[in-house]
Amino acid sequence: MYTTAQKYKWASVRVFYYFNILIMALTGGLSIYVVAPYTSYMFFNDLAFWKYLKYYHKLIVQLYRIMGFWLFDPKYREMYTQPLTSPPSLGPDRRKIKLSAHWQKADNDCGNCINCCIKIKCPLIDHQRKLCLSYNTVYWRYFSCGCYPASQKQIDYYECPKWVIKESSLEVDVKTRKASLI
Known about the structure:
The chain has one domain (4-181). The protein is 52% helix and 5% strand. It has helices at 4-26, 31-34, 36-44, 53-72, 74-77, 115-119, 138-142, 144-147, 152-157, 167-181; strands at 97-99, 125-126, 131-132, 163-165. It has a two-stranded antiparallel sheet with strand order 1-4. Strand 2 and strand 3 form a beta hairpin. Keywords: Membrane, Transmembrane, Transmembrane helix. The chain crosses the membrane at residues 15-35, 55-72.
């Protein structure tokens, strides 16, 4: 379905990002300023980094917060299994999820719900307008935000009122887990 070249591209974007995250963690966040245009492009689709410097210290704090989630919150840690070669996403996989029967807004709109952003204290959320400042950026498409939700665990963790997993996806997931145990 996807070419090997595409998969290499997607993997290289993620590996380079993870490398930068590692360097940022090891330098106490100082490297974010050294690679400021890259950071600005990843999170804001704009190389004009000086317009976004006010968010950089918040991104550093967020890095350590997410590291804490990974280290100390097993529910958070087990939710994310995104292969390096998976394509960037503009939204969840509609083959696996559907709108909740209680959802009253359009299917491409989260309405006033920003539960997922609030739960992790995302510094890129505009609380007044309830908008993501990083929407549809490289980071958003390649990492957790663009493919959210990918599992029932994510829906439950973030208490998402919009999405539910389709029954057929749950059955496939259960069969896959049983097969892996054998």
